[in-house]
Specification:
heterodimer; A: Alpha-Beta Plaits; Alpha-Beta Plaits; 4 helices; 9 strands; B: alpha/beta; Rossmann fold; 22 helices; 20 strands
Amino acid sequence: MRHTLAVLVENNPGVLARVAGLFSRRGYNIDSLAVGRTENPAVSRMTIVVEGDDRVLEQVTKQLHKLIDVIKINDVTVDEYVDRELVLIKVSADSGQRGEIMQIADIFRARIVDLGRRTITLECTGNDGKINAFEESLRPYGIKELVRTGKIAMLRGNRFTNLNTNGNREDEQ
Amino acid sequence: MKMKVADALIRCLELENVRIVFGYPGGAMLPVYDALYHSSGIKHVLVRHEQGAVHAADGYARASGEVGVAMATSGPGATNLVTGLANAYMDSVPLVVFTGQVPTSQVGTDAFQEVDITGITLPITKHNYLVKNPSDLPRVVKNAFHIASTGRPGPVLIDLPKDVAQTEIDFDYPETVNLRGYKPTFRGHPNQINEAARLIAAARRPVIYAGGGIINARAGGELLELAEKIAAPVTNTFMGLSGFPGDHPLFLGMLGLHGTRYANLAVTECDLLIALGARFDDRVTGRLDAFAPNAALIHVDIDPAEIGKNVRINVPIVGDVKQVLQALLPLVEKTDRAAWLARVAELKSAYPLSYGRENGLKPQYIIEELYRCTGGDAVVATDVGQHQMWVAQYYPFKRPGTLISSGGLGTMGFGLPAAVGAQLALPDRQVVLVTGDGSIQMNMQELATVREQELPLKIILLNNHALGMVRQLQEYYCEGRYMAVDFKFHPDFIALARAYGIAGYTISDSAEVAEVLTRALAEPGPVLVNCLISTEENVLPMVLQGQGIDQAVSR
């Protein structure tokens, strides 16, 4: 099963290398990893999508916790959450195909961010399923280049993964 | 108070009550060594190779229970520490290690003697730091000592660029540590401890399997009390040896690959295995599905990641093994389990440790005699190989922490520098190094340190003119095709010892062992005893690759 981990880490140099190194040397598979600052500039948040059964996940979590720079880990997959990913896709498109591609973009609420003589570049945001479907719809036109940000995720409602909350249900009354 | 970072570093070490640092200077470390020059409280031991420094700090830490400190310069000085750091990491030894680094302006430019040592040591340190901001240094050192010595101990490396070391800062040593990502659990969960007590009460054939955690947590007393109270035989991992008295009737010796048959069979037959500060290492378990197949498992460890890593556990308890045992002891009833202990006694007499006394000088006999001559009171350091396993089998350690050896990493060359560190930590104790002719030659340069520091170290060299352990593996797994294991040349070890000002003795016959050992041990200075043993002698019993520990080659 695929799990999405929200990992809060000290915003120290080398912390990404520590986490990435841990995954590679212990043989865990990362599907995607996205990292960026949080509301607290001293803390970064990594969203790691990892494939594995419960036992693998338990080891991943425990090994991550052993890193001094890792502050908190939440498996958001066990709860209600929203997740998003952003993709940029550059497809070949001569003037005759632009209309069709723009219709596809409309259906997926994607945006056209650049237009070349023979290419269109589109931006689309969504969860895994939507992004995959979008990519499939554009494949027949010839995908020249594609880049995904990796998934980021957040718990729904009055539940938190940040530092000031103990567990993720504290404010639930 | 204003001072240079290098002076602040030495001040930090003084405030951490560091008495000895092991090191080797160099260009990038000039400011730190200049600061050491002015310190009256810290003794610097100059080794002959940086690997010697880190192993000596390791031996010092194991013998003293304090944090070991080593330092080396940038580049090759730093890379020479790598094996020693990996060794300390695998065996959970608290070290704080300093390396010099090129000035910050040159970091990343492939400058002379530059190496990314924090990058290199990422997977073999508990944590590491590159100090870029001079004012961070006191807090970094404070954190390093805290991280190294608490929870599951381990090495921490601090990389210090030369220009940072020369910068002046306002020195203020923090009193407390605040690491929000590092909060080890010391007290076991009460519900889990109750559950453990319930399993112990219900068990008919319990075995305690105790590892190095017992020694790190100084829980030898609690272990003895538990074993006697619940009448459970105790087997030690290699790292756990000395954690339970070797002459105790409940002691089963070491288990695993070269463990006693009766320890391995008792584990196979037990219905409850109580793992204390041990990690179900592959050298212990053999084939996993044949390991303790009928047993419920209780696992106590300070490192949550060890629990459930290799085997499924019925009652996991994360905590300091001493505190957990203190909480558990009042919850268990005194029992005698006569039937189970009778069965264990039967196993002991049916499958004793034994070796052939015919043809010549036997290494096992030398170890037995060493035990008799030292009264079992010596601190014994070893290297890695057959001699190490013979010590494990034939030297029944009496007191916790008296075995100093490389368990997890199996580092040949560890023994001599580690013994140097141990002897410096315990100047009044008898420290004996048991080594092999392969291992001693890996860090032989430290004989000079032994002499220079005037250490009364006793070195017992079990010399079979071969890399015995590999030779044994080739005998079993390569049908006797011996490749690159026989030494066709050896130095004259006695003349070599003499060259270093170390007394030398040779033993070539069983009849000489007791007398020569007694004389050697009584010498006031360092001694090397060259014991000429047979090349063919093997370490037995031996569980073959892929087999369960209920199987073994015995004779």
